[in-house]
């Protein structure tokens, strides 16, 4: 059974913003990705609007709402935006000012647990599925379940950045155990962060993971080989 593939197209917008141009158009990119087999389109709307914007979300949801997966932080501003445009699903992620990319899973505190749970409930009332981006450890998985999430996305950053075989094997064990626990708790399991054409297969082979969310490596390959070829190649691997 092939895994589902969510293609993150943030960096199509990064290229557009480099010249403050109107192209390349994320809407056209989404159409191409879906045409060649992507199961979902993933975008991250950040507070600083460095790539994707609320306008992009509005256009993409209007055209492809059943396939739209929004990543955003757990602020009331982002909750309001998600409720306005109603993507099919939302992944709540941590966000730090100035970070190049997401640095890890959600760090739950009593204060942000209540905020995340409230946002989860608000989105679900509007039939929006909720995913929480978490580190692959038991405490994070159990807390995500207590928040009422439908999905957990396991952060694969440690795995993708591991430099030794031993370190990679440990990361894979952690991901495998986290996936099994999440399934036992009734959660759907996704995975993503730093995955590419060279390192994705060991994660894809883990039991319980249903979807891989991959962006930068696909867009980077697309610059040289074209977006349809890049998406098709990843889909074939999965």
Please describe the structure with a list of short key phrases separated by commas or semicolons:
single chain; TIM Barrel; 11 helices; 8 strands; eight-stranded parallel β-barrel; 238 residues; 49% helix; alpha/beta
Oligomerization state = single chain
What would you say the CATH architecture of the domain at 47-211 is? Alpha-Beta Barrel
Looking across the biggest beta sheet, what order are the strands in? 1-2-3-4-5-6-7-8
Structural class: alpha/beta
CATH C-level name of the domain at 47-211: Alpha Beta
The proportion of strand residues reads 15-25%
Radius of gyration: 17 Å
**What is the makeup of the main sheet?**
8 strands, parallel, barrel
CATH superfamily of the domain at 47-211: Aldolase class I
Q: What is the mean pLDDT?
A: 96
Termini gap: 9 Å
How would you sum up the global shape?
globular
What is the CATH T-level topology of the domain at 47-211? Answer: TIM Barrel
Structure summary, number of beta strands:
8
């Amino acid at each position: 059974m092939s895994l589902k593939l969510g293609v993150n197209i943030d960096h199509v917008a990064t290229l557009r913003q480099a010249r403050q141009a109107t192209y390349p158009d994320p809407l056209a990119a989404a159409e191409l990705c879906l045409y060649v087999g992507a199961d979902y389109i993933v975008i991250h709307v950040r507070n600083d609007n460095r790539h994707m914007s609320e306008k992009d979300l509005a256009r993409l949801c209007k055209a492809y709402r059943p396939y739209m997966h929004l990543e955003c932080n757990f602020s009331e501003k982002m909750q309001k935006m998600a409720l306005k445009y109603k993507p099919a699903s939302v992944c709540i992620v941590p966000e730090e000012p100035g970070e190049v990319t997401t640095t890890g899973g959600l760090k739950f505190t009593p204060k942000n647990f209540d905020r995340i749970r409230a946002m989860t409930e608000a989105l679900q009332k509007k039939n929006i599925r909720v995913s929480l981006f978490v580190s692959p450890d038991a405490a994070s998985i159990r807390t995500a379940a207590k928040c009422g999430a439908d999905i957990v996305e396991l952060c694969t950053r440690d795995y993708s950045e591991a430099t030794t075989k031993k370190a990679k094997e440990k990361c894979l064990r952690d991901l495998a155990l986290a996936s099994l626990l999440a399934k036992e708790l009734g959660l759907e399991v996704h995975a993503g962060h730093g995955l590419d054409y060279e390192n994705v297969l060991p994660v894809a082979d883990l039991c319980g993971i249903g979807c891989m969310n991959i962006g930068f490596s696909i867009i980077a390959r697309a610059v040289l080989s074209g977006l349809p070829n890049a998406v098709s190649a990843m889909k074939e691997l999965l």
